[in-house]
Design brief:
The structure is a homodimer of 375-residue chains. Chain A is an alpha/beta fold and 375 residues long. Helix content of chain A is 42%, strand content 20%.
Chain lengths: 375, 375
Amino acid sequence: MSIAYNLITKCPETGARLGVLKTAHGSVQTPAFMPVATQGSVKTITSPELEQMQTGMILGNCYHLYLRPGVEIIARSGGLHKFINWRNGIITDSGGFQIFSLGGMRKIDDNGVTFTSHIDGSAHYLTPERVTRVQNMLGADIAMVLDHCPAYPSSYEEVLRAVERTTRWAWRCRQAHLRTDQAQFAVIQGGVYADLRLRSAKDLMAMDFHGYAVGGLSVGEPKDLMYEALDTLGPILPEHKPRYLMGVGSPDALLEGVKRGIDIFDCVLPTRIARNGRVMTADGYLTIRNAVYAADLSPLDERCACPVCRGYSRAYIRHLLNAGEISGMRLTTYHNLFYLAALMEEIRQAIARGDFGRYYREKSPILKKYYGGVV
Amino acid sequence: MSIAYNLITKCPETGARLGVLKTAHGSVQTPAFMPVATQGSVKTITSPELEQMQTGMILGNCYHLYLRPGVEIIARSGGLHKFINWRNGIITDSGGFQIFSLGGMRKIDDNGVTFTSHIDGSAHYLTPERVTRVQNMLGADIAMVLDHCPAYPSSYEEVLRAVERTTRWAWRCRQAHLRTDQAQFAVIQGGVYADLRLRSAKDLMAMDFHGYAVGGLSVGEPKDLMYEALDTLGPILPEHKPRYLMGVGSPDALLEGVKRGIDIFDCVLPTRIARNGRVMTADGYLTIRNAVYAADLSPLDERCACPVCRGYSRAYIRHLLNAGEISGMRLTTYHNLFYLAALMEEIRQAIARGDFGRYYREKSPILKKYYGGVV
């Protein structure tokens, strides 16, 4: 057995779902947000801190780990969990998104992708089989298929070709997947074209994956188009399998995703903006480097229960960031991840109470106001 | 009452002392090493981690905090402890060393020092009175007097002038010191000239400070000359007051300092080298970025009990550092501070057992071999 998803309850008014995703490395209460450990580390943060925030699952990037430090050393150490000292769940993405967004001199054909490393310019050739093999070696709880993620905007014809290729590659990944203790999720493409989304989903569902991710969104399209795509998919995805929206971590979009039946999310947003001094609060984004906070002795967020907000002032955190102190980035990162963990907990409690519809109507305009207009 | 030093026992063979330094913010078992929080943060590390390592006292830099974020905001937040969220002991240095080593366009006269900020080139004038006032406002448990720290090498005449100025300034600092809940330590100068060391110590002891620091060492002189200076001072310093050797954090020098009666030490060495990927181990320094560790799944130090050595491999930490991951610097920093904390604990236990003489004879050649030749 690889994973098991138990659907606990559904919102009577919306598509929101409360569930538990069980893995060989503990259980994740869903809906959940997963911090991103791009290179095998959630930037500035360590495992005990993630556990303090009840983080059940993180995302590792296959593309990055494949290039550096390399898969062999991770496999030899006993797998990614052991290598990075993390005992809860891990998903590894396939690297598809990174190959299409980071790799230089990319050449794609139906068999696979040739690209050059963004680190040292070395040439690499990845096929669906090889990507699956690499993820088998990394040994995360959930592996992703190699997909073709077109940029936004792309023409209908381009997206159609990406959908068809994603389907063919998904089947090859499915055949190449050898570990019975590792789940494998497919990635639904289709851009903002409803019929292509449906086609991609149906093609992939026919192959009976352990779960389904929605890819190719949050790549620059207006948020409303992302929500439309989720509206299209919500009713047809299998009820008893987990649903994963890739690359989404903005508070407003998390709420909208949950409303449309998404169970798990990942995004570098909370950690990346934190390192630049931007934090999420009950009153929206706060850019802590601004001079206005130089003598502000209040916490980042008065209403936040995290140890950063209980122990440190805006003035101190601003000082640390301005003085180039790494601890400043630690504190803002911790806070942002805690903020999202607390938001997801609030959402789960609303679904559990059977009250998500009302919660959504109250919370959605607030989050849209504070987080809707910006990425 | 500001602080109290209780001498628990002395080594029957050497000058080593076991004691407890009590402050308004807890007690420090001595001999102890104090991590340096230059700008109000022990670089990459937070307070709970320092507490995990039983850190009883840290050092803050008056010069840095005065320039950025400024003393007023720290005072207004309730003092340095509150501002940086640290509940154990703090010493602030006077900035003397930084003024002489960092400040540009320095002009020194008997009244004080004019210097330009290394941050923005702004001009500043600090006198003994002003430095004392700044430290009163910071509110550390122990404040240091403004001293004149000459470079190494300096002529006898130069060092003599520095000693005389240090004495005059110490007296003015003593007069200006207003807080009864804050201790004040003098800084003994004299370079490597035994008669000047004795003169400086006697001058300052006549003013009855709460404790005595040995400054102007570990500034480039051969280690043997540093030990000679400590040999000179050991017998004459008051037995029931704490003795602080400034700027020393190399394992071999810590042991030699303890042997000569030093109670507390500070140095940026363990944290600075850690960020460059250099760690202290039972087998000496290890430069973890070296290619030889790329596939090394053993911990930084097999014999170390710290969470870093219990959870992470050399290969992973090397990967983090090479990939520019901040967590790598966190792990090496934590390990180095833990290594020194464990060394000091081992030393304290040897003194407590009445066994320090034997311990010293066994340990000293090993530490000299591994750490004696390098800074």
